[in-house]
Amino acid sequence: MEYKFVVTGFWVVLLVLLALLSHRVDSEPTQDKQALLAFISQIPHANRLQWNASDSACNWVGVVCDSNRSFVFSLRLPAAGLVGQIPANTIGNLAQLRILSLRANRLSGQIPSDFSNLKLLRSLYLQNNKFSGEFPASIPVLTRLNRLDLSNNNFTGSIPYSINNLTQLSGLLLENNGFTGTLPSISNLSLVNFNVSYNRLNGSIPASLSKFPASSFAGNLALCGGPLPPCNPFFPSPSPSPSSIPLPHQNPPPKNPKKLSKAAIIGISVGSVVLLLVLLLILILCLRKSRGKAAKTQKPPATARSAAVAEAGTSSSKDDITGGSGEGERNKLVFFGGGIYSFDLEDLLRASAEVLGKGSVGTSYKAVLEEGTTVVVKRLKDVVVNKKEFEMHLDALGKIKHDNVVPLRAYYYSKDEKLLLSDYMSAGSLSALLHGSRGSGRTPLDWDNRLRIALTTAKGLAHLHVSSKIVHGNIKASNILLRHDPPAAASVSDFGLIPLFASSTQPSRAAGYRAPELLDTRKPTFKSDVYSFGVLLLELLTGKSPIQASLGEEGIDLPRWVQSVVREEWTAEVFDVELMRYHDVEEEMVQTLQIAMGCVSTVPDQRPLMNDVVRMIEDMMSRDDGLRQSSDDPFRGSDGYTPPQGSRTPPPPALTP
Ligand SMILES: *[C@@H]1O[C@H](CO)[C@@H](O)[C@H](O)[C@H]1NC(C)=O
Ligand SMILES: *[C@@H]1O[C@H](CO)[C@@H](O)[C@H](O)[C@H]1NC(C)=O
Ligand SMILES: *[C@@H]1O[C@H](CO)[C@@H](O)[C@H](O)[C@H]1NC(C)=O
Ligand SMILES: *[C@@H]1O[C@H](CO)[C@@H](O)[C@H](O)[C@H]1NC(C)=O
Ligand SMILES: *[C@@H]1O[C@H](CO)[C@@H](O)[C@H](O)[C@H]1NC(C)=O
Ligand SMILES: *[C@@H]1O[C@H](CO)[C@@H](O)[C@H](O)[C@H]1NC(C)=O
Ligand SMILES: *[C@@H]1O[C@H](CO)[C@@H](O)[C@H](O)[C@H]1NC(C)=O
Questions:
Q1: CATH code at position 419
Q2: Is the Cβ atom of 187 under 6 angstroms away from ligand 4?
């Protein structure tokens, strides 16, 4: 709720600023305003909905205009006390409308046929009203629809086959109505959310819909097949199950499914909070312990090498490390293939170093050698494998060469110290870029760059999976490193190290990004990598860190938080406020959200392969490049403060609220 206010507030501030700067306070969508005035004058509504006719319609409660204030972009009047039929010739005249939400009112009757004019509509939320009649004929015409929610109404008749015309549809929610007949086969839709529960449907569930859970189909007259029990062979049906046993078609619907699921939700939330507290406690204890340890180990000369890397110019300890005790030959820096570096351990120990970050596998330092070379040194802690295994594993990792994988350059192994050397990426980590000092004059990461980071990261991971057969095992924003040139090219680091550590410590790693099955299996897989990548996509979309202590009140993880918001309304609320300024990318954001939701599927087999993810992102980007050049983009060529076509740069910083 609060987030919604922030978003709305942002819009209001932005629009007011735009208006002031362009001296066009009076500019407004005249035609759309008439349609809205006609609507509000004909329909009973709540008192708080005071649309002042002498004010610009763009300033009215629930109305958002495009940046040029030339048309109404979205109309959201949830729970506004609207009663009765939607009058014809009102909302149907908002020809440019993209989002319409009239949920939770007492609207009744049929949807006016002039809704078919809303050709650009992407989201239609009419749930929780008293609409009746057949499935509105005007809806299958709205081919841009992405989200359609007609749930909790009194619709009857059959669900028409023509919803197959809505090829962009990702959410179709029709539960708690009176729909009858059989389910049409819905073939080409990329549906993510689907629910027809508690209607009066019968017949078999089409194969294309059988991927949805039983609760999507519960409480109907006689649906069968798919996730429900197989169809009774005495009933003719398009795809009868071969080995079907006559079964009672339908378990009676639970008396009150809502109550049950509420209890479950409360259980889960309480569980997560307790788990979180326990994890926090463990973390604090661990930190204390390791701090104590570190303080001690800095003194005795035997482990001075630990400090030597960390502290600038402490060359006093170098003899101790390379020292002539016969170990000198063995304890050397081992460089991989050819190597672009020409320094030895002594040089490294003389380097000035600064801590980059403490991760779950060890601490990273940025080391600047006297000759000017900068490398990243990672001190691994709690390595359990022996030297031979270590070397074999590292040799395999050292062979990996790809633009989007941070190359490993060298390693060092001794009894007390295990070091990894890799290239230093000057543009820092995604984590710093996304979450570092938000709001204080920082340039927000724009959508194009986020998308490029997502694509390049996916490419790096796909290379690890396919060419190197290596599970990354520790995907998180702080392990995605960026280059300035080319801009926003990401590389994955810290890959494939998990086999070096005891499996009992795995679950504590990368909390927030960890696939649910790892709590049991403890062994990261390609599929658990895909899950973590999905969380990373959600992080790019929402701007929220998955390891933030709490998202909203419930303290749930990022995927579940997104799911909970998306269940209500698909778009605006989940996205990063910093992205809300880019109107013309909302479709890409929604598509990316769909890809992310597929990746964070709780069932590992339902997640796509990393290769598929790369292809999906590339497809989306090439498709939308085409779209953006087409003339139907309402934001093209407007005067100055909206991004020019093609290069979607943010508006001047002065406009940032
Ligand atoms: C409507 O807006 C005008 C100008 O903005 C203002 O003068 C007037 O008082 C407003 N009327 C109401 C009822 O708020
Ligand atoms: C659906 O699309 C087909 C072909 O694209 C068209 O013939 C048909 O009229 C459309 N149906 C509706 C209800 O728009
Ligand atoms: C739903 O519609 C039917 C007729 O189609 C009517 O009898 C019934 O009262 C309606 N229910 C509600 C809750 O409006
Ligand atoms: C599904 O998509 C394929 C190509 O993507 C197309 O050839 C086919 O006609 C589509 N089927 C329907 C029912 O729209
Ligand atoms: C569904 O129910 C209707 C009427 O109740 C009936 O005519 C039809 O044959 C049923 N279809 C299936 C597949 O059971
Ligand atoms: C479908 O809707 C019903 C009723 O609101 C709900 O209990 C069920 O969990 C929903 N299923 C899915 C998969 O969303
Ligand atoms: C913006 O508004 C002005 C005046 O209302 C109009 O001339 C111009 O074409 C509009 N631009 C766009 C992109 O709609």
A1: 3.30.200.20
A2: yes
